[in-house]
Amino acid sequence: MSKFFENPVIKWVEYRLPIFSFIDESVGSGYPTPKNLNYWWNFGSLAGLVLVIMIATGIVLAMNYTAHVDYAFESVERIMRDVNYGWLVRYIHVNGGSMFFILVYIHMFRGLYYGSFKEPRELLWIIGVFILLAMMATAFMGYVLPWGQMSFWGATVITNLFSAIPLIGDSIVTWLWGGFSVDNPTLNRFYAFHYLLPFVIFALVFIHLWALHVHKSSNPLGIDIQGPQDTIPFHPYFTIKDLFGMGVFMLIFMYFVFFAPNFFGEPDNYIKANPLVTPPHIVPEWYFLPFYAILRAVPDIWFISAKLGGVIAMFGSILILLLLPWLDRSKVRSSQFRPINRQLFWVFFVDCLILGWVGANSPDAVFHGVPFLWIGRVTTAYYFAHILLIIPLVSILERTKPLPESISAAVTANAKSGAGE
Amino acid sequence: MSDSAITDDKSRRDFLIISTSVVGAVGTALAAWPLVDSMNPAADTLALSTTEVDLAPIKEGQSITVVWRGKPVFVRYRTAAEIKTANDAKLEDLPDPQADKDRVKKAQWLIMVGVCTHLGCIPLGQKANDPKGEFGGWFCPCHGSHYDTSGRIRKGPAPENLFVPEYKYLSDTKVQIG
Ligand code: HEM
Ligand code: FES
Domain containing A113 — which CATH number? Predict the structure, then answer.
């Protein structure tokens, strides 16, 4: 690296704009990284890769897409049949959306397990929650663009959620639609936002990384870096590890693109939107299913209607994540040293999976005699109880295991005994 | 300069800073309004807001669906039995109490927006072989709302009755909605 910085052209630029040292200190040999990061630390860079892929394929799709109710569906079909490699670009974009959510959900569960959201990384976590919200908005509006039956009815159901707001709800919905139903003005503005939001996400990712680099990555032990003996330079050690991860990830991603491109999709979305016929079973994209289950689980409570309560619970389920750094009072970050938290983490994880499964089923349906409505209610209650009650209580009452004295001490001890975690 | 001149100066500056900031903030908010309001329905969208329906071809016990403002409107020629069950329902049994006579202009013609008041799906019940729910009117399959023969919500998550739009009889067999 140092040789690179002696190059006169580099020096000339550096003197005026220190961009190369900025890159070097962000993802180069000038960025000290904990030496014990495991593969769960790959998911951030993977999400970044997918963001770039989404923007690249999105711009190419935009060149052939027509945002008008009479042509949108046909223009997507034309992309699939007539545009050179249009099918490939679209299938990458469509499956990329699903991959993005898988990666980000794993990335978040990683943070939950290893306590990455704790002091001094609270803002890093909070920015992450905002990235998730922006991704959800982007994906929701993107799904409307092909103007299939699920596009139309998903948009109708979700925009109608806002009518639950007392007094001004109906005016808000009319404003969102730009009309009296989901129609051409709605499609146009969704397209404008779908184009804009990924760049907002890009900016948020930038701030996310800025905050990351102030206190550096946490690590599986969750203890602070004490000195150079605990770190190795990001480049080449983690650039190569991230690249390896990308290779593995792309194999999985491309498996779906080439061999199961509609695996995550709904066949109904290949039927053109019909405002007069609702499909018998409306389901959102899989990554929204747990939230859809929460939306439908809430009954009438006192003066709050089920509709308003459901909307509050659904948005609340994401917004309470913002409070996590203050709900979890344990000084120990990593669940490796928190035996009770570690087990309950897995209970919470399974709870989220069940919520997703409930979201995919009709609430009237029955599973071995148990109505899905009730499975949804119990798992929704647990979701909130876990975050608002169990996490704070466990963090106060739990007896944690002793922490190693340093990252390097733990790593060398592991190397000697030949074990690793 | 005396001490009092200095404090005078300071409070004058505070006043200037606060007043100019407030005016600036209000100005910015006013300037944002056209952007926000541009997302409301445009004049041509509002202009499309009436639809005419010919009732002559509809037979007793039949329904048709017409489009008004991009939404389906259910027009049903109700049978005497349907009118009777609608009138027999006790108001205190209704989640959104409303008498049948307040929902129609002529008892046999029920005209209402066919959009579920829960989250906007279109209830089934227009076709002869559609499920009509437990109250013989309409059934919304999305989250299971049951409407009666007056289009009133009886069971399920929808909070309100199916919406009755403004309409007027242009003649005995012609209705203008909107
Ligand atoms: C955060 C990154 C993004 C996400 C999560 C995302 C998500 C989606 C989703 C889920 C769809 C629906 C796919 C379908 O069923 O057809 C879609 C469609 C679309 N997106 Fe994106 N997108 C992203 C970025 C972009 C960008 C940056 C652009 C344009 C510059 C773009 C342009 C389009 C277009 C034109 C369509 C409609 C064509 C189609 O349906 O295949 N997207 N997007
Ligand atoms: S939209 Fe009709 S029951 Fe939910």
Answer: 1.20.810.10
